[in-house]
Every structure is written in structure tokens, then in C-alpha cells.
Amino acid sequence: MKCLDLVIVGAGPGGMTAGIYAARKKMDFIMVTRDIGGQAILSSDIENYLGYQFITGVELVKKFREHVEYFNLEIRENEPARVVQKEGDFIRVETEKSKYFAKTVIVASGRVPRELGVKGEKEFKNRGVTYCATCDAPLFAGKDVAVIGGGNAGLDAVLQLIKIARKIFLLEFSSRITGDAVMLEKIKRSGKVEIYTETRVEEIYGNTFVKGLRVRKGEQVKEIEVEGVFVEIGSKPASGFVKEVKKNEKGEIIINPQCETSVPGIFAAGDVTNVFGKQIIVACGEGAKAALAAFLYLGKKAWKKEG
Amino acid sequence: MSKKVKVYTTSSCPYCSMVKSFLEEKGIPFEYVDVTRNKSALEEMVRKSGQMGVPVLEIEGKIIIGFNREEIEKELGL
């Protein structure tokens, strides 16, 4: 099997920047990814990316894409990685479609929405359960819905839904709503939102589509009838498929200033790592660093002749 | 002859904008349905795709859920 110089996992801001650097170094590489743009595409307004006073996530990702396409990179979309593991001197990357061997890998898989981990959640995903209020709120016009999570993301979802849904239940696991007071004021004033704190979701039920939630507050168990469930309980690093590398308690891949992980040859960049500042511009910078570091690593090591 | 393409979207969904600009770039004519303001279209989309996520594409009767570039290209013979 052919051994590549590099496989880049992920095509968000970090992965795409790494791709441009790798292309300019004429490395033999491919990119594998679930989608293009990662979380960046979900930002509605970006006002802190240099060169643009204002741009939407969709537009910025389009610009990124045009830039990488100029270099004729090979981006394999709809092909998320399942395993990244060191094997001898090389690294094996297994995706949902294929298997690759490379001398180096840059993991730039970003973050994914955190799941509740309750019964019915997987089954009803896109059948009432959603993790993207921006995308799916309009589908619940005139319906009763629940928003899980009282942080800013949850309150933001509620505010989007106030204009659309009939009634909204805001459920928070801890004892208080932690999102901004200004948002909470607006929510309370709407008269459309019932707020439950110290309330844990135990099950999402329904037939083909969601019909309701079973929730627990202390000893009390209650059913809430809703057709939509918006899960807004934060995100987690998409790092589970990378074996053996050291991660912190949050599951973020630990890197040094050269974007090296604990496994030689495996580099990581952006939001999947413990880097400070989960920002588009930071991820881009980290992607550049990772590609430069991978290039140096390739030059330093004496590679055995490939079979 | 070009295939009949219908795109079900909501006004705010990022992947819907991606689908739209992708089809425009490729010069594919398509019908763009915003289900936000069209309840019967929403019901039609849910019935045809068996789910509630957007975007949904219908290419000559074949349903594609999400912005799946590879499948769209395959279906359109691009």
C-alpha cells in the first residue's frame, strides 16, 4: 500500500490551513473529513477574522474553499476518520470508506455537539431531536418544544424559538440558569417559556417522531409533551478515534507549541486540542504550525524504504 | 436533458446556503422551497425523507438528506 507523507483529518479552518501549507511544501497528502468548514459554518456573524469587518460563517467557509481549491487539494468529503493509530514508523488512518498509511497525520477534527446520552436521543435525531437551533428552529412553527441547557447557547436557542414555536420548555440540570441575564430577561418577558431548573432529562420518547420527554426533578418524574428537542449542552472534542495520544480531562488532545502530540508523527491543531482560544483565527494559525512541524519531522527522520 | 431538482430548506440553515451556491456554481437549475413559510411543503419534505433535518434534495424522485456533495454529484452525473 502506498504510504503518503501526510493525512489531514478534518477540513475546518485548521485542517484547510494545514492543507494550504502542505500543498505549498509539495507534500504528498490527502484530506479526509466529514464536512467542509466544521463548526465555522455555523457562526452567523464573524467580526474578528482579519481582513473581514463582517462575514458570515457560510461566506468565510466558501472563501476558504475557493482558496484550497486553487491548490487542487484532494479533499475526501463525507469520509470521517474512524481510527488514527501508529503502526511501526507509520500511521494508519481508517475512514468510513477506506484505509491509508502515512508518515504523518494532522488531526484537526474540531468539536462536535455534546449529547445528553439518554434513551431515545439517537433514535430521534433529526426526528425531533436537533443540535442546531439555527438550522432547524423554523421546522417547529406553532409547535411545543424543549430546549435542554441553560447556558448562553440554550438561551440563544430559546430566543430564536420564541418567534416561531408555540410554547417552550427550558430545562437546566443545575440549580440555576447560567446564561446572560439580559437574554433571560427577554425570555421571561415573552410569557411563552416555562423554566425548570435541577431537572434532568431521562428519556426522549415518540413513534416515528418525538412526542415528549420524561424528566426528573429530585424524586418527581414528569412527562412533557413536545415535538422538538433542542440539545444545547455545549460541545466536546472529536478526539475519540485517535488512539494512544495523551488527552486532558476534557478529552482534548494535548499538544506542545509545535502541535506535536505524545505520539511522534501525529500532530493536532485547533479546537480538538488543548490550545488556548477556541477561535477560527487561532485554529488557522494552529493548522499552519502543524503543517510546518509535520514537514520538519518528515525531513529529519530517516525513512525506511517503502515496500 | 437536465434532471428535476428540488431543494427543501429553512431560511437560516448554513448547509442550505451551501447547497444553493453549489448548484448555482454547477449551473444546475433547481426549485428552492423554504419550508419556514410553507407548511404543506414542510409536511411533504418530512413525508418524503422520513425525517426533519434540512436541507433535503429531491433529484428526479431520489431523496438526499443533508449537503452530501458526493451523492448529489453522482445523482446529477457531474
Tally of DSSP β-strands of chain B = 4
pLDDT averaged over residues of chain A: 95
Instruction: Identify low-pLDDT runs of chain A.
Output: none
CATH class of the largest domain in chain A: Alpha Beta
Could you tell me the radius of gyration of chain B in angstroms?
11 Å
Hey, roughly how much beta strand do the residues of chain A contain?
25-35%
- Oligomeric organization of the protein chains: heterodimer
Considering residues with a beta carbon less than 8 A from a beta carbon on another chain, report the largest interface and each chain's count. A-B, 25 and 26 residues
Count of the separate structural domains of chain A:
2
CATH architecture label of chain B: 3-Layer(aba) Sandwich
Distance between the termini of chain A: 8 Å
- The number of distinct helices of chain A, counting runs of at least 4 residues, comes to 6
CATH topology term of chain B = Glutaredoxin
Q: How many E-type strands of chain A?
A: 17
Largest sheet features of chain B? 4 strands, mixed
What structural class is derived from the secondary structure elements of chain B?
A: alpha+beta
Order of helices and strands of chain B: EHEHEEH
Q: What's the topology here?
A:
The complex is a heterodimer of chains A (307) and B (78).
Chain A: E1 3-11, H1 13-24, E2 29-36, H2 57-70, E3 75-76, E4 81-87, E5 90-95, E6 99-107, E7 111-113, E8 129-130, H3 133-136, E9 144-148, H4 152-162, E10 167-171, H5 181-190, E11 193-196, E12 200-206, E13 210-217, E14 220-225, E15 228-231, E16 235-237, E17 266-268, H6 280-300
Chain B: E1 5-9, H1 14-25, E2 31-34, H2 39-49, E3 56-59, E4 62-65, H3 69-76
Parallel strand pairs in B: 1-2
Antiparallel strand pairs in B: 1-3, 3-4
